[in-house]
Amino acid sequence: MPRKNSTETKIYVLDTNILLHEPHAFLSFKEHDVVIPMTVLEELDYIKDSKKDVARDARVSIRAMEDLLHDATPEDMLAGVSMDGLGAGQTAPSGSLSIFADLNMVESQQVFTSNENDNRIINVALHLQKTFAPQKVVLVTKDLNMRLKAKGAGLAHVEDYRTDQLITDIKYLSRGFHTFEGNFWESVKSVDSRTEGRDTIHTIPKSMLPEAYVNEFLLDETKQFAGLVEEITDDHLEVLDLGYERLMGRHAWGITPKNIGQAMALHALLDPHIDMVILTGPAGSGKTLLALAAALEMVVERNMYDKIIVTRSTPEIAESIGFLPGTEEEKMLPWLAAITDSLEVLHKHDENTKGSMNYIMEKANIQYKSVNFMRGRSIQNAIVILDESQNLTASQLKTIITRCGEGTKLIVGGNLAQIDSNYLSAVTSGLTYLVEKFKDFSGSATINLDGVVRSRLASFAEENL
């Protein structure tokens, strides 16, 4: 069991969904003690052999706990095994991990007597709260209803898992650009400009934008200036002058930007030095259409990449590829209709739209893949379009990003207002985590697309519903 009545440390009881969200979550509580109820191990055992996408996360979590506990005696596991030395840096754990045999709890110790898994886990937290008072006992779960039940049953401290939550509110999420009030040059006190080939680069004081990050776009309200932060030193920012009109003049596969957000997105998408582009924004802002247009431009017109791989988060298909007849691509078509819709838009003025689409899909070697089958692959010299990524966790996104080999460009799109996952919110989504973690990486760019350009109907719905 945890250290008796230590008011300096807390006891964290973890729910199953925490270990599925982040398999190594039990290592994230620093000097505090972690308790895993036996019910959680039972649930992990059931999930690890299932066909669900989270089965891998369950197996990873079980192996990680086994690595720590494999030499422990049954008494040690119940008493708590130190996690000291398992991590590095300030976040390294120094508390203990213990297994609570809640299946053996006598009925007099149980608040909930019904034999549901959630109730048994809450019973453990309530029992520990009573046993170790005044030490804080915290139940950590992503299940909102379970948090309400636990509080209603008398548990004082119930929390969501916040270790991978990098912002407190979605309004603080990096947008990928900064807009200066008035004219940009009026706010510049000193500047050193130089020309490199066809590019003009300005060196300005960092005090103008202390929180700037690499590949952040700079705009002004007068629509006269547009730049891109290329390098950051202790005192200065190196800004590439893009020119507002030149930026708005970018085009790909016959598509021209309808607003400055789309123009910035196109610039990042067509830049061969940027390995990952993250596009966020409301439905109808043009994320998928821009990604596909830029991909076709770079594959077919410029021969920069060999193929386009399209994949997306599909909660239904993640559990099973299904029994629909046909190849993997044919089974994925219902979930990737957004891509075929966009392809149709790009070729709607052709004499034979369907013929053009089939020709381009073959010419550009467009492949539809399930997220399930992305694991274990090494994708070389391709463009990977990952759509609807707001429903993925940080660990799921990591497994996809690490598939990208040499010469591969990843385009990640998502709308944080349309999260379907039971246990994710806008601030805990893997897409939010990705934006914040990669915002200062020189090989990535983030663009938040403002404004719905799909139709006036879609625009009104986005603003008023």
TrEMBL record:
Coiled coil: none annotated. InterPro entries: P-loop_NTPase (IPR027417), PhoH (IPR003714), PhoH2-like (IPR051451), PIN-like_dom_sf (IPR029060), PIN_dom (IPR002716). Residues 10-148 form the PIN domain. Keywords: ATP-binding, Nucleotide-binding. One of its GO terms (molecular function) is ATP binding. GO terms for cellular component: cytosol. In the N-terminal section; belongs to the PINc/VapC protein family. Belongs to the PhoH family. PANTHER family: PIN DOMAIN-CONTAINING PROTEIN, PROTEIN PHOH. This is ATPase. The lineage of its organism: Bacteria, Pseudomonadati, Pseudomonadota, Gammaproteobacteria, Alteromonadales.
